């Protein structure tokens, strides 16, 4: 874990990997997205066993390091510690955030899924979350059954003073509405990795932030 991660980039594109079983192909798919300059990459593979997840997370780390992109591990803070990633993302079934914070240390980036719940976001903030994630804001092909969240949640949770991540069915067309509502980071799987040109898609998301901040 690098000692200087407290100054992690709190705004921009948060790329999340697809369920790719072939590790060589995973790296080939991720590289052009990293080259566009996302703030964070989350390694997420819901179909891999623990050995493949360890192999893929370890392989992604040097790719991220070479481009200055921070690597977050989905679901499994122990794997984040084992591979030396920058942090972990925890949902409701992924263990105790306080325990993860204690194990990974103050410098780790630990994100919490809050779905459509401001109460859950408050609890996550109290437990030491680095960011709170809400979603799904739009229908998602990656997670078709995801609970839906709505824009006012982003306004309501601004008082937590934590970076807010929006997720779920986000495209370059609907991202501006989320950024206008207060999202700091836009988390995306399909809009990047199912796009005909993932590098161009990543640039299109980044342009949403530039346009908003101009
Ligand atoms: C940034 C971000 N937000 C939400 C999630 C979803 O986490 P979770 O609810 O644990 O669901 P799975 O991703 O594990 O299916 C996420 N991974 N990342
Ligand atoms: C992993 C995940 N979590 C969600 C939540 O609402 O918590 S929505 C989602 C899927 C995100 O993928 P896509 O960008 O392809 O919709
Ligand atoms: Mg999870």
UniProtKB/TrEMBL annotation:
Residues given in the record as 4-amino-2-methyl-5-(diphosphooxymethyl)pyrimidine binding sites: 42-46, 74, 113, 143
Pathway entry: Cofactor biosynthesis; thiamine diphosphate biosynthesis; thiamine phosphate from 4-amino-2-methyl-5-diphosphomethylpyrimidine and 4-methyl-5-(2-phosphoethyl)-thiazole: step 1/1
Protein residues bound to Mg(2+): 75, 94
EC number assigned by the record: 2.5.1.3
Enzyme class of the recorded protein, top EC level: transferase
Molecular-function GO term, any one: thiamine-phosphate diphosphorylase activity
Any one GO cellular component localisation term in the record: cytoplasm
One protein family per Pfam: TMP-TENI
Cofactor(s) the record lists: Mg(2+)
Positions annotated to bind 2-[(2R,5Z)-2-carboxy-4-methylthiazol-5(2H)-ylidene]ethyl phosphate: 140-142, 169
Cofactor note text: Binds 1 Mg(2+) ion per subunit.
Reaction(s) the record says it catalyses: 2-(2-carboxy-4-methylthiazol-5-yl)ethyl phosphate + 4-amino-2-methyl-5-(diphosphooxymethyl)pyrimidine + 2 H(+) = thiamine phosphate + CO2 + diphosphate; 4-methyl-5-(2-phosphooxyethyl)-thiazole + 4-amino-2-methyl-5-(diphosphooxymethyl)pyrimidine + H(+) = thiamine phosphate + diphosphate; 2-[(2R,5Z)-2-carboxy-4-methylthiazol-5(2H)-ylidene]ethyl phosphate + 4-amino-2-methyl-5-(diphosphooxymethyl)pyrimidine + 2 H(+) = thiamine phosphate + CO2 + diphosphate
Any Gene Ontology biological process: thiamine biosynthetic process
Keywords: Magnesium, Metal-binding, Thiamine biosynthesis, Transferase
Residue ranges annotated for the Thiamine phosphate synthase/TenI domain, each copy included: 13-191
UniProt xrefs under NCBIfam families: thiE
Summary of the function given for this chain in its UniProt record: Condenses 4-methyl-5-(beta-hydroxyethyl)thiazole monophosphate (THZ-P) and 2-methyl-4-amino-5-hydroxymethyl pyrimidine pyrophosphate (HMP-PP) to form thiamine monophosphate (TMP).
HAMAP family: TMP_synthase (MF_00097)
Cross-referenced PANTHER family: THIAMINE-PHOSPHATE PYROPHOSPHORYLASE (PTHR20857), THIAMINE-PHOSPHATE SYNTHASE (PTHR20857:SF15)
Protein family according to the UniProt entry: Belongs to the thiamine-phosphate synthase family.
Protein's name according to its UniProt entry: Thiamine-phosphate synthase
Organism: Cognatilysobacter lacus
């Amino acid at each position: 874990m690098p000692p200087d991660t407290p100054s992690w980039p709190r705004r921009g594109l948060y790329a999340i990997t697809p369920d790719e079983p072939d590790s060589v192909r995973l790296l080939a798919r991720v590289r052009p997205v990293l080259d566009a300059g996302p703030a964070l990459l989350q390694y997420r593979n819901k179909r891999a066993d623990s050995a493949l997840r360890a192999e893929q997370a370890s392989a992604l780390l040097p790719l991220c390091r070479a481009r200055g992109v921070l690597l977050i591990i989905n679901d499994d803070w122990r794997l984040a510690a084992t591979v030396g990633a920058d942090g972990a993302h925890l949902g409701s079934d992924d263990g105790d955030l306080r325990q993860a914070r204690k194990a990974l240390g103050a410098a780790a980036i630990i994100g919490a899924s809050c779905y459509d719940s401001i109460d859950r976001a408050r609890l996550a903030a109290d437990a030491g979350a680095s960011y709170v994630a809400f979603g799904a804001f739009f229908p998602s092909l990656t997670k078709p059954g995801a609970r839906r969240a709505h824009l006012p949640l982003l306004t309501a949770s601004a008082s937590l003073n934590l970076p807010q991540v929006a997720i779920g069915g986000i495209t370059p067309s609907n991202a501006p509405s989320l950024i206008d509502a207060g999202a700091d980071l836009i988390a995306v799987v399909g809009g990047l990795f199912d796009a005909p040109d993932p590098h161009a898609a990543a640039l299109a998301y980044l342009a949403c932030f530039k346009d908003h901040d101009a």
